[in-house]
């Protein structure tokens, strides 16, 4: 939220609010049609006092910080949606292959066409979130992830990182400033905007695919009752939320417009970086090699 309502864009700031703070309450727990294992609630902040040390990052840096968080969190929503679609597809396929009630349906061309369409959509949705994640890892945040200090940190055992002096340093102002400086040095606003656009595309299309595939699977089962229909109905209800949270699909498509439909956005991108995962430790290694990039940001 802004610290000065007259200058919201310049003073947008992230806070970490203690749930025991006076004035904070959970005002409404949502009654959801799907994804009910993950509760969602409306939070109220009535004159809550938040001390300076609860600012996340720096005052006024909230907008770019939120952009990076959304760029990182939207591809996983695309992946969740793709998983829901794939679950529905595999369930209806096994029903068509194995269930007595579906005998003969697989021989019909309209059923084959429906299955092929589902397979295509799932494949597309998977490509989109993989593409968005690759862009994030290799371009927008590649410089940070491949920096020697960050790589070295990846090799420090979790037990050491949890110790008081190390944990204190990681949470310190100096460490925070160093991270922000590194981010500014290794990426650009345009790279992050483009990355957010690809992440938004993966999220929005993933949600649409999940709705279409679960709907098409239900249509194949039709009015037949039994566990398959109940399972597909649940997946259809789960799919709907993927079009809403992490920003509605409409708002995500506006990000696609901002990040990809402007000619100037694709110029001045930082180079792609190659990051290899170290199998045993899972840490990022070797990022020195650049994939060669020509002047206007296109890969060659
Ligand atoms: C179950 C659930 C869980 C959630 N979990 C989280 C969470 O964990 N963290 C979190 O931060 N948020 C969460 N959200 C919030 C969610 O991201 C928002 O509800 C969503 O982004 C929509 O915002 P809004 O409710 O303010 O609707 P509004 O922004 O008021 O939108 C209402 C409608 O208008 C459309 N609209 C708005 N502006 C435009 C425009 N410029 N052009 C075209 N159409 C437009 C929207 O697409 C939507 O259809 C959750 C929401 C739900 C329902």
Helix-strand string: HEEEEHHHHHHHHHHEE
Structural class: mainly alpha
* Helical content band: 55-70%
CATH homologous superfamily grouping of the largest domain: Butyryl-CoA Dehydrogenase, subunit A, domain 3
Query: For the report, how would you describe the main beta sheet?
Result: 2 strands, antiparallel
Number of beta strands: 6
| Uncertain segments | 274-300
Distance between the termini: 42 Å
CATH top-level class of the largest domain: Mainly Alpha
Q: Count the helices. How many?
A: 11
Strand content: 5-15%
CATH topology of the largest domain: Butyryl-CoA Dehydrogenase, subunit A, domain 3
Structure description:
- The chain is mainly alpha-helical and 300 residues long.
- Helix content is 57%, strand content 6%.
- The strands form three sheets. Strands 1-4 form a two-stranded antiparallel sheet. Strands 2-3 form a two-stranded antiparallel ribbon.
- A hairpin with a 6-residue loop joins β5 and β6 (284-285).
- α2 (62-98) packs antiparallel against α3 (109-140), α2 (62-98) packs antiparallel against α10 and α9 packs across α11.
- The radius of gyration is 23 Å and the shape is elongated.
- The model is unreliable at 274-300 (pLDDT under 50).
- The structure holds flavin-adenine dinucleotide (FAD).
- The site of flavin-adenine dinucleotide (FAD) has 11 residues, from α11.
């Amino acid at each position: 939220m802004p610290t000065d309502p007259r200058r919201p864009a310049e003073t947008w700031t992230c806070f970490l609010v203690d749930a025991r703070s006076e004035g904070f309450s959970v005002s409404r727990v949502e009654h959801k049609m799907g994804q009910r294992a993950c509760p969602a609630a409306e939070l109220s902040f009535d004159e809550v006092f938040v001390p300076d040390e609860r600012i996340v990052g720096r005052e006024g840096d909230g907008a770019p910080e939120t952009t990076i968080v959304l760029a990182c969190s939207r591809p996983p929503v695309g992946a969740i949606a793709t998983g829901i679609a794939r679950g529905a597809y595999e369930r209806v396929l096994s029903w068509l292959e194995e269930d007595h009630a579906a005998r003969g349906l697989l021989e019909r061309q309209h059923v084959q066409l429906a299955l092929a369409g589902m397979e295509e959509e799932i494949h597309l949705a998977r490509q989109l979130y993989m593409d968005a994640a690759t862009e994030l890892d290799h371009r927008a945040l590649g410089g940070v992830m491949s920096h020697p200090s960050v790589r070295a940190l990846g090799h420090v055992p979790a037990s050491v990182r949890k110790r008081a002096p190390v944990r204190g340093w990681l949470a310190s102002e100096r460490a925070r400033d160093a991270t922000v400086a590194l981010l500014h040095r290794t990426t650009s606003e345009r790279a992050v905007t483009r990355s957010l656009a690809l992440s938004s595309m993966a999220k929005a299309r993933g949600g649409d695919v999940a709705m279409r595939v679960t709907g098409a699977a239900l249509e194949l089962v039709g009015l037949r009752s039994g566990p398959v229909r109940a399972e597909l109905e649940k997946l259809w209800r789960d799919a709907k939320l993927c079009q809403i949270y992490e920003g509605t699909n409409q708002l995500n498509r506006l990000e696609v417009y901002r990040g990809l439909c402007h000619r100037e956005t694709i110029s001045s991108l930082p180079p792609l970086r190659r990051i290899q995962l170290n199998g045993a430790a899972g840490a990022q290694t070797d990022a020195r090699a650049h994939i060669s990039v020509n002047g206007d940001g296109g890969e060659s």
